[in-house]
Automatic annotation (TrEMBL):
<feature type="transmembrane region" description="Helical">
    <location>
        <begin position="294"/>
        <end position="315"/>
    </location>
</feature>
<feature type="transmembrane region" description="Helical">
    <location>
        <begin position="321"/>
        <end position="339"/>
    </location>
</feature>
<feature type="transmembrane region" description="Helical">
    <location>
        <begin position="36"/>
        <end position="54"/>
    </location>
</feature>
<keyword id="KW-0472">Membrane</keyword>
<feature type="transmembrane region" description="Helical">
    <location>
        <begin position="256"/>
        <end position="282"/>
    </location>
</feature>
<feature type="transmembrane region" description="Helical">
    <location>
        <begin position="183"/>
        <end position="204"/>
    </location>
</feature>
<feature type="transmembrane region" description="Helical">
    <location>
        <begin position="85"/>
        <end position="109"/>
    </location>
</feature>
<feature type="transmembrane region" description="Helical">
    <location>
        <begin position="216"/>
        <end position="236"/>
    </location>
</feature>
<protein>
    <submittedName>
        <fullName>Membrane protein YkvI</fullName>
    </submittedName>
</protein>
<feature type="transmembrane region" description="Helical">
    <location>
        <begin position="115"/>
        <end position="132"/>
    </location>
</feature>
<keyword id="KW-1133">Transmembrane helix</keyword>
<dbReference type="InterPro" id="IPR038728">
    <property type="entry name" value="YkvI-like"/>
</dbReference>
<keyword id="KW-0812">Transmembrane</keyword>
<feature type="transmembrane region" description="Helical">
    <location>
        <begin position="144"/>
        <end position="163"/>
    </location>
</feature>
């Protein structure tokens, strides 16, 4: 039972790392999947396979090579010199994306709590500063609470959408996008999210002693991400094209299910943004600390200040501009991970 619980913790941490601002709010799914109509169900299936395979492989490589941060993983994949360059590019990507997450927190406070945009940013920053001292264990504990609730709400959205007139729209929606765009989108999406997830999954793979638990945690986590993608796409397809006008489209769907569900879902959106933001700041701090001998709190404050400055541009505008660009950069990284022969599903070696 203890091993099964730890496997679930790993899976929930994996899911919670991917389910950040763009995913939890629905904007990410709208940009990469739902806008492609009936093709989205197939491309979500492809993304799920890649999340299971490559996310698990990443943790196993970190476990086997003793990688402490994503810099160590990149040095393994690209060599020492190129790995350092890739690491600093990854850091810039992480800062940009966490600016999007911070902006997402501000949007939650504006659209659903009637509070000021800056209030959401400051609450997230202060909470992150207070929690970061507890490390990876606090991140796993947070996701063990938040992710199961998100999975339950995904089920609720599926069952409620089944009774709507547009329930079958996910298999009938058309798109004017080319097939190249359609099939490139899941590759960009998965590559991009795995580049971001390495900030958390690499330290996690290094600290978990059982290789077998990492393997099953990665498989369950990848399947969980795929299920939540499909559930959100199914619910939003029924509301197309009107759903595209909202900064937080999933929140507007929750609104239709009653104020109790809406309140719970909006709270969970913020908690997912918050937990992913905490995890990424933790991973970035570990990486920078390996190169700059400054107190971790100072590094953390500088990174958060950069994220705060970029978040002033707003949530959906940052998401639509930065994510596709970063996704293209991430494709090269994902290709190297695919070609790496380490970390395959071989044996159940334990690390002592």
């Amino acid at each position: 039972m203890k091993q099964a619980f730890r496997v679930l913790q790993i899976a929930f941490t994996y899911i919670g790392t991917v389910v950040g601002a763009g995913f939890a709010t629905g904007q990410e799914i709208l940009q990469f999947f739902t806008q492609y109509g009936k093709w989205a169900t197939l491309t979500i299936g492809l993304s799920t396979i890649l999340f299971v395979w490559l996310g698990t492989k990443m943790m196993l490589i970190a476990h086997d090579t003793g990688s402490r941060s994503y810099e160590d993983l990149n040095k393994h994949l690209f060599g020492y010199k190129a790995g350092r360059w890739i690491t600093w590019i990854t850091l810039l990507i992480l800062i940009g994306v966490n600016s999007v997450m911070l902006a997402g927190a501000g949007s939650v406070f504006v659209e659903h709590l009637g509070l000021h945009y800056q209030t959401g940013l400051l609450v997230t920053l202060v909470g992150t500063y207070l929690l970061l001292g507890r490390g990876i264990r606090a991140i796993m504990q947070m996701n063990s609470i938040v992710v199961p609730m998100m999975l339950l709400l995904s089920l609720l959205m599926i069952t409620s959408t089944l009774h709507q007139p547009g329930a079958s729209r996910f298999i009938t929606l058309t798109t004017d996008k080319s097939l190249i765009q359609v099939w490139l989108s899941p590759l960009l999406y998965t590559s991009f999210n795995l580049v971001l997830a390495q900030a958390v999954l690499v330290p996690l793979g290094n600290q978990i002693q059982s290789r077998n638990m990492l393997k099953w945690g990665g498989v369950l986590g990848g399947i969980g991400v795929g299920f939540m993608l499909l559930a959100a796409h199914f619910a939003m397809s029924a509301q197309m094209p009107g759903i595209t006008q909202f900064e937080i489209p999933m929140g507007s769907i929750a609104f239709q299910l009653g104020w109790i569900v809406q309140s719970v879902y909006v709270s969970l959106i913020f908690m997912e943004i918050f937990s992913t933001f905490v995890a990424d700041i933790y991973g970035m701090t570990l990486q920078v600390r390996q190169n700059i001998r400054v107190h971790p709190r100072v590094i953390m404050l500088v990174i958060m200040l950069l994220c705060y400055s970029l978040s002033q541009f707003g949530f959906s505008s940052l998401l639509s501009i930065l994510y596709p660009i970063f996704g293209c950069l991430a494709l090269f990284w994902a290709f190297k991970l695919i070609m790496d022969r380490w970390g395959s599903f071989r044996g159940t070696k334990e690390k002592y």
